Amino acid sequence: MNRNIVCIGRLALDSFPTPIRNSKLLFHAVRCVFPWLPLSLLDFRSKAYLYNKEDFALLYTPGSIMYLPSVSSLTDINYFHLRLINKVVNRCAPASILDVGCGTGFLLNYIASDLTETAFSVGIDLASLPMSFPAFPNLNSSSFCFMRGDLYNELIKIPDKSFDCVICAHVIEHVFEPLSLLAELRRVCRNKLIILIPLEKCFRWGINLHVSFFPNASSFLQFVGADYNLVCYSSFIRLGDLMYVETVS
Residue 124 pairs with which residues in a beta bridge? Predict the structure, then answer.
């Protein structure tokens, strides 16, 4: 399904009054439209704090009984933000790019198609594997490296300021300790840090595996310290998603 449509659907759900948004009836109505949603999502958020890292890995492992397939097979980034990311990355002309939570590798391939010079790209993901190189012709073994594992544990292996551009798209909402992840993203970045998150209210249940929530731009900007003039940043909201661009000093 087109990611833009998914964003519009989420905005519609967020607009409902809290009692309706949290009702089991609405959850089952949504499952009639998206029958692949597992019943376990009804109490996922109330039990997620009990999960260990292995349990979370299963949530993102195809074939697992706990696996929730992505609505969009290629990317969780809407069309508007894809173009904006391309502009920002091309403007800083990075020699190296890190995509934290790279999924299939779609974004790195998309960016590489427009770069005037080949950048060394690294993708990190908990369970997903990038598609084969023939499917993404701009990624090859000489310019691309994939690291599989827990994002935080993989990031701490990387030396300070290793990458000109660091991207973390639709990942922070999936982790319980977003501040720890943010600190690592800043540590390994030496120029542009790009973060994408959905602006989403917390449901008692959910149609996704989100555990951290930012209901509006102010809540996220406060989280990253932008409200206190601690960073140089820009932000762009499209279809209920926020794209945050920070220049790391």
Answer: 100, 147
